[in-house]
Amino acid sequence: MRRAAWVAGASLMAVGVVGAEPVAVVPATPKPTLDGILVEWGAPERIGLVPGGERVGVRGAFTGPADHEADLYLMWDADYVYIAAAVVDDTVDAQQIPPDKSEWRGPSGERKDAMFYYDHLKIFLRGPEQPLGHTIWLSPADGTPHLWGGMQRQKPTELVPVKAGGALRDQLYTFEVGIPWRWLGFYPQPDMVLDALFLLPDSDLPNEELRDKVRQSNKWIWWQGKVQLKGQPPGLRLLPPKQQVIAEIAEKTREITVPKVAVREERAKEKEPEQQDSVAVEKSPVAQREIPAQAVSGDSGPSRSQEAVQTESVPTIRSRLNRSLLAKRHPAPNWVRALNDDAEVSRGQVDSLYYRLTHSLARLTADRINARTDGIVMDIAEYAGTWRAQAQHFLQKLLTKTLADLEQGQLQSQIANASAEVGVDGDKATRLVQSLCREALKIYTEGKVASSETLIDKARRRAKLSEEQAQDLLAVLASSITR
After folding, report:
1. Cross-strand partners of 201
2. pLDDT in the model for residue 428
3. In the prediction, which pLDDT does 108 show?
4. CA-to-CA distance for 52 and 114, rounded, in angstroms?
5. pTM of the predicted model as reported, rounded to 2 decimal places
6. pLDDT in tens, 107-126
7. Are 162 and 177 in contact (CB under 8 A)?
8. Which residues contact 202 (CB under 8 A, 6 or more apart)?
9. Residue 50 class from Cβ within 10 Å (0-12 exposed, 13-18 middle, 19+ buried)?
10. Which residues contact 205 (CB under 8 A, 6 or more apart)?
11. Nearest to 36, CA basis, from 102, 107, 85
12. What stretch of H or E contains 150?
């Protein structure tokens, strides 16, 4: 472990408050819009990060509330734990630092964590009976914060399935973060207690080089303790108590009948004495499906397939089965499948990406829901079990193909039918779709974020359509794709 990380970790552990009451985490009703505007956060219990506060640790010298003051809030539902932070800071010193640049090395061999020399929010969560937790680092931003993280002892990455939004104003910045339970590796239950740590470095040297910052003093403040899930959000699946699960497993184990193993005498006689314990198992069709080929090889250690079976989670297995069923019932068109140039994305995942995208667009347009472009990416990525970057690449390929087809007139009949249904001029309808696809492709290519309402408004103005005409047309088009 790096020296700086070890010292910081030892300092944080030293302030743990033994026996302190956990902070209550209330259900999120309704779900917060992760845009950095904290209008939905009136009910949660406040966690204050000020020097001298309960379970608060400090490194360095803070001069008062105007220098740095922060409040944090937590909520949860069946899918996410939500965290919001509002930070008053007299000097905002924000910098996007990728994980591979997070360690600074000095000329004399000294090492420092670069994250502690710029304003950031660090979130750490660990579930009950979990040996390792997950960490997220976020940089202040007006829009989508730069973030990265991962499980302890694993290489951090920017490809984490975490949703986040932020706002940045003069001497104030906020975060709204949604962390999926699936990524944390456990399913939430009422009264479940989690270990938590929230840390905020406060840098007041925005124009200084990192090497100069290291020579001067730095400071940070953190809260460490336990948080407890309260209430029962809609859609939560209650799990049986641990003791009941153990009893059921024991009962099922007693019901298992072990079949006799057939030994071929001829082969047994040919074996050396020390090898005669090896047996030839007659495989049934079920056994052939359930036992990987490597599992019956002569290797003494566990095979890679065995390790995959042992470590694969139930949600992962269920997701794979869902994709298999989806491919049979709702396969993506061949031209959509042909767009996939990522060897790590399976055909079933392409089907899932396309299915989720088309049905989400149909719902958004029918109900006139204002969605964020990054939220759409996160939604289809989570549904298909892909990385966010893979889902975004798929969207870019799909938009590029759609624009090419529009240029060649291949979608004219579909647009003409939709425009006739809502009473809109066909040329204006085509112009609306082209403008919307171009703007969306630009957003995804440049890595920016926009709302669907903004994109539609810009496109319909270029097409010279009213808001009502544009919304009706897009609803019909989106609905026709899912039929």
Report:
1. 220
2. 92
3. 81
4. 26
5. 0.52
6. 888 889 999 999 999 999 99
7. yes
8. 60, 62, 67, 68, 89, 119, 219, 220, 221
9. middle
10. 93, 117, 212, 213, 216
11. 85
12. strand 146-151
